[in-house]
Amino acid sequence: MLSRAALSSSRTLVPALGALGSRQKHSLPDLPYDYGALEPHINAQIMQLHHSKHHATYVNNLNVLEERYREALEKGDVTTQVALQPGLKFNGGGHINHSIFWTNLSPKGGGEPKGELLEAIKRDFGSFDKFKEKLTTVSVGVQGSGWGWLGFNKEQGRLQIAACFNQDPLEGTTGLIPLLGIDVWEHAYYLQYKNVRPDYLKAIWNVINWENVTERYMACKKGATVWESY
Q1: Which of 23, 99, 123, 208 might form a disulfide with 228, Cβ 3.0–4.6 angstroms?
Q2: In this structure, are residues 33 and 181 in contact, taking their beta carbons and an 8 Å threshold?
Q3: Which residues, by range, are in coiled-coil regions (predicted)?
């Protein structure tokens, strides 16, 4: 017979599992622009494959893995829960990273940020050009696949540049809140720039959506979060 404590725990657990089972599945977000809108800097073929194939795969895999994880939770199968975590991190990170990435880009982007974000960049990196050079260098230097990031260190109240490998999500692995992400997986540029990653990184600055990056920065300063539709 279950003890009173066990009964209480089971009553708490069942609704939680029910909520997990009934949550909506993740979905591929629509782009806020056409596939060809970022040309000539990123061509339409890359954007279509990147969004409708690569990102969609992360979303589909994440939904499958979450369902399997829910089943393992219900069964108390800790071994399976542990075994699923690398896949959840990879596909969940891929979904999070790309959902941010699409909004970080705009056909009306480029140039420099304004206002408080620009002042913060100057404060933490010396100048916008030095910041741009540092993030480019970090992104070029990612071995294999990964991301270059501008993040917000909420403990220090300062901007910070970091690199993440594969699809590791910035906040989940470093604690930094993502403001600007640059995808340096080859599928983000190879069809146009071949294996010359520096050329891709030079071009991408022409489509950076500084309004979006500024919105994220201002939300961090206010202690809020820019939520994505994950």
Answers
A1: 99
A2: no
A3: none
8 Å CB contact between 28 and 35: no
Place of tokens 């539709």: 229
What amino acid is encoded at 111 in this protein?
Answer: G
The residue written with tokens 């939300």 in the block is 219
- 30-82 residue pLDDT tens: 999 999 999 999 999 999 999 999 999 999 999 999 999 999 999 999 999 99
Sign of CA dihedral 24, 182, 140, 204: positive
Query: pLDDT (tens digit, 9 = 90+) per residue, 147-175?
Result: 999 999 999 999 999 999 999 999 999 99
Say which residue the tokens 């071995």 belong to.
143
Cβ neighbours of residue 146 under 8 Å, at least 6 residues apart? 163, 164, 165, 166, 168, 184, 185
